[in-house]
Structure formats: structure tokens, C-alpha cells
Amino acid sequence: MDYFRVLNLSKEPFSNSPDPDFFFQSEQHLECMQKIELSIRLRKGLTVIIGDVGTGKTTLCRQIIRRFSEDERVETHLILDPGFSTNTEFLRVMARTFWKLNAKEGISDWRLKELIKKYLFRQGMDNKKIVVLIIDEGQKIPGFCLESLREFLNYETNEYKLLQIVIFAQNEFEETLKENRNLADRVNMYHHLGPLNFRETRSLIKFRIERASDVNPAPSFFTFPALLAIYRASQGYPRKIINLCHKIILTLIIKNRNRAGWIMVRSCEKWNSPDGSARRWRTAWKGALMAVILMLIPLTLGLDREPGRMYYNVDRDVIAKTPETADQMQIPEEEKAADEIIDEAVKAAVSYPEFIGQVRTGSNETLGKMIQKVYGIFNEYYLGMVTQANPQMANPDRLVSGQEMNFPAIPVEIERPLVGYWWVEITRKNTLEEAYGYLRDYPADRPPIRIIPCWNPNEGMIFVLINKQVFNSEDSAREFLELSNSEGNIPERLLSEWGSGTVFFTNPLS
Fold it and tell me: What stretches of 61-205 adopt beta strand conformation (E)?
């Protein structure tokens, strides 16, 4: 489509049609395809592929047909919808599916089976061909059809089956097999397709963009937080990933942008889930696993993002690996196990909120100064994120007094462990509004303070107000505290630990 060319794309990268050219060979899909091919070439009979909705069964089905299309020894036939009303109807379709078997009205079931049997023996024994019947949407197969399929599997020589049957079905087909033991006993190869992990999700998105791109290297349309948001929204199901990415690409075109962030993904997810399923984002996940992901992400993924990296507080030495873009991230083989732990943790961990809070603007207050006070830094990236989070804002250059501003959660990483550093804590608040208000009213003649918005699994969101000075020893921090207390009655205390699994939204060391 021509309108995709504005993003340097020659065609739509996230079409939900099962195009074999866009078949992404994840580890499990590649393994499944190899098993199917081996089972067919060895003529073992019945192969069953089970998977939930959107795990890529139909695409895999088309890929198998494509793989055998140039092999003259293999003859493939496809049934897309096996929801037949009678066994006679099923046998007639089978007869018509096979070459030159045109069943006439009034012919008996027994005669139809004999015609099919004759065809299979002629092709399999006389012509030395492998006849393959592929059935998609196998969960729709009625019981009488399963019995006929079982009979077809009885057509065999001393060495192999004359008909190779591959069934792609949803999870409920497992119960069907349990209820039909005679057919289940004939299953030669059984494979269960699950969702992709985070690493595979990123690779799938990159692969499709590269296939559809006009330029080399292909553009990167998603920030790392956006990729993480896509994975969490889709739960790794390829169809959900593709549908969501399609809507994001359209949004980029409509808004004349070339890169999507976390907030845009969330917005498109809500568009994709009008029934309110996006509320899954707010499900309370287990805190222990969040601690795992927070400690492992810097070690395994090597995140980097403009203007600053995603930083987490880790209670041990961490050597940061920071490639310039998410597309350059390479995960060594020895770290795959840790990557899989991350995938599980992403699904089960406690999530920090989308926004750290809201603040009502004061008189003569600028957006730049508000961003500086909340995040400890101001640049175009933070300006863009906050602007995107506040569509109600008419003019970022001129704020209306009393207007409520949303501040998105933008995690930052701490480049080095926080062990050995000391801060003077003034107070802490439960909301950003309270913390910001305290900062506004803080005496100007006192040493300057700042807000540290942070989150941890035990306390949730907290806003710690600290003195801007960071100390390298307890003695120097205590000396400053004593001097500070002698000049006023503001309660202060020393702070040296932030808690395991703490996620920072500004860098306490800067």
C-alpha cells in the first residue's frame, strides 16, 4: 500500500494474512516444522499440532504446503474447515480433494471409501508418492469424521502408511483425543505450540519490518519500552503481536511520527481491546518475580535508550552492556536461560504503574521546569513523553494554571551499585502531587532538595524528598545532617538503602 512508503516500507509488515514470506522461524516453530516434515517423509501416519488461538498454526500449515510444493514425490491436500454435517459429506469432499475422484450423488459411503482406498494404493505404491492430508481448525472435526480418518490410517503397507494426516487444532482438541482413544493411539507425532518469549517477540517484529522495508538497515519503529509493552499486551501470541503492531504502524502514519513509545502502545492496545481487556495491565503480579526481572534485565539485555538508559538498582556489581539501539542487542547463548526467566517474570511480576502521578500547574509555571523537578532532567525526549501523555494540553509553551498534568513512568537505570552512598532524607510522600507541593513550599533559604520518584514491590510508588547533595561516607552525611538540623526544625534522617527491586524514575546519583 502506498501510504506505507512514508515509513520506507514496500508493503504492509503486519498483515494478519498467513503469508509464508513472513513466516518467522522461532525455535519452537522451526522444531515443529522439522518434526512434521520428518514424520511425513517417513510416512508415519498421523501428526497433531495443538496450540491456542493466535500461536501461528495456520501460518505453519501454509509453510508446510509451500515446503513440499516443489517436491514431485509429495502430494499435499488442504481442508480449511472440517465442520462437516454428515460423514457422507466428508467422504465426498475427500473424494473430490483427491485427483480425479468425482463422487456422484447417491453413491454409498462404502463406495466412497473404496474409491479413496484405491486412489491411495495407486499413488502410494504404484506411483511411489507421499499423499498428505492437512486439516486446519481441527477442533471442528466431528466424531464421525475422526472415525473415518482412523480407517484411512489403516491403509498401509508393511513399511508405511499410505495417507499422511496432519491436524492443526486448538487446545480443546486434546479432550477430543482423550475421548477417542482409538485415534489417539495412532498419533505418531504430537507437538504443542505456545506463545513466544520476549526475545522471540522482539525478533518477530524486527524480522517482519526487515521483510517489508525498502531500506537497509530497516527502520526501528519501536523503543525498547514499546517492545516490552507489546510483549506484555500480547502475552507473546503472534496474532496479537501482529494485530497490535499493525495498529501502531497506522498510528505512526496518521500522527506523522516514525517511532512509537510505551504510551502509544498502551493507547493502541486500548483501541485493540474495546471490551476492556486492557485492564489486565493492572493485575496484581507477584513481587518476588519482579525482583528477579529487575536484577536480570540489565545483565541479559543490555538496554540503552535516548536520552538515558533504563536503570535499575541491583544489590551487586553489574557490568552494563549498552548498545546504541535495541536492534543492536545480541544475547549470547549462555544467557538464554536468564532470558527465559525474564520472560516468565514479565508475565508474573508486579508491575509499576503507567503514570507516576499527576500535578496541577501553578501560576507562571512552565512545562520545562515541571519536568526538571519531577525527573531531575529536561530534554526533548522527556518533553515528548510528557506531551504525549497529556493530549488535553493545548499549548506546551503556555500552561494554564490549575491544569492537571500526567507524568508517565519512565524508568532509569543506575550505572553503578548504590552501596556506599548516603543521602539526607527530608520526608517522603505517597503521591506526586503531595511531593511536588512540598517542594514548592520548601524554604528557599534551606539547602536545595529534589524529588526521587521510585517504586518497589513492597511499598508501591513512593516519593522521597532528599537533599541534592550525595555523600560517599556516613560520616560526611552525618556531619551535614547535624549542621542542617542546627539551622531549622525540619525533620531529616540519613538514607543509605532503597530496598531490593526498587525501580527509579530519576537518578538519585545525578
Answer: 74-79, 130-135, 163-169, 187-193
